[in-house]
Amino acid sequence: MRTTKLYLYALAFGLMSLVGFTSCLDDDDNQNNNNQYREMTTLEKEIAITKAAGFYSGKFFFYNVENKLDSVATDVSITASDSVFTTIIPKEPLNAFIHQFSLPEEKLAIFDQAPSPELKGILHPYWNQYLEAYFYTFIYTYVNNTVTLSFDVDETPHTVEYKFKDILYGSYGEEYVRYAQWDNNTFACNVLLESIQLDDTLFPINSCMSLSVKK
């Protein structure tokens, strides 16, 4: 899949500062020793969530069926009370993934009518860079990393299941994690989709998508 390209595009939207973020997860002590980073206090974490809380609108970026970079409007909400961000994954990128597989038209028509999944994640402020927070970095945990939805097409019941990943590995060994960044009322986020299952048919997706939204 187009994991690497989508990830690099996400970086272009203000996530470049996180290029070493995955290595930070494995090397916390070194980061503290060289004073490039310091761990956020409890109060700073609360401030990070409070600043990020609100309603956002913007774009969800993906590669379409013609293998061209595309985007679709999307919305995100972040609640300060429970640190949860919520967004609906648009059907356009999901359809693009499914169309990469050789499926009969009737199967594609069924998926076209499948509901979109709601992605919910709990934001955890991770590091505060440069002693003063010009931006906030989060790793998020899923409220539920498997979303199962039922729907009917011509009075026939169907089920679609969307599964999101904790970590995604690219073609060249790259490690992509569920992270997000807030800066100047802009929220950007990686979305790691593992698979889509339509009835009894499993589609291994394994792609990193991205969104960028603003208050």
Protein model, in words:
- Helices cover 24% and strands 47% of the residues.
- 31% of the residues are buried.
- Strands 2-3-4-5-7-12-13-14 form an eight-stranded antiparallel β-barrel.
- The radius of gyration is 18 Å and the shape is elongated.
- The protein has 215 residues and is of the alpha+beta class.
- The two termini are 31 Å apart.
Itemize the secondary structure elements and their pairings.
Layout: H1 3-15, H2 21-26, H3 28-33, E1 37-39, H4 42-52, E2 54-63, E3 69-79, E4 84-88, H5 91-98, H6 105-112, E5 118-125, E6 127-129, E7 136-142, E8 146-153, E9 156-164, E10 167-169, E11 175-177, E12 179-183, E13 186-198, E14 201-214
Antiparallel strand pairs: 1-6, 2-3, 2-14, 3-4, 4-5, 5-7, 7-12, 8-9, 9-13, 10-11, 12-13, 13-14
Task: List the main descriptive attributes of the protein structure presented here.
two-stranded antiparallel sheet, disordered N terminus
Q: What is this entry, summarized?
A:
The protein is built from six helices and 14 strands. The chain is an alpha+beta fold and 215 residues long.
What about the largest sheet?
Answer: 8 strands, antiparallel, barrel
Number of helices: 6
Q: Uncertain regions: pLDDT < 50 for 5+ in a row? A: 3-35
How much helical structure, as a percent, in the residues? 10-25%
The assigned structural class equals alpha+beta
The proportion of strand residues reads over 45%
Principal-axes shape call: elongated
What is the typical, i.e. mean, pLDDT? 81
First-last Cα distance:
31 Å
Radius of gyration: 18 Å
Q: Output the strand order for the largest sheet.
A: 2-3-4-5-7-12-13-14
Helix and strand sequence:
HHHEHEEEHHEEEEEEEEEE
Count of β-strands: 14
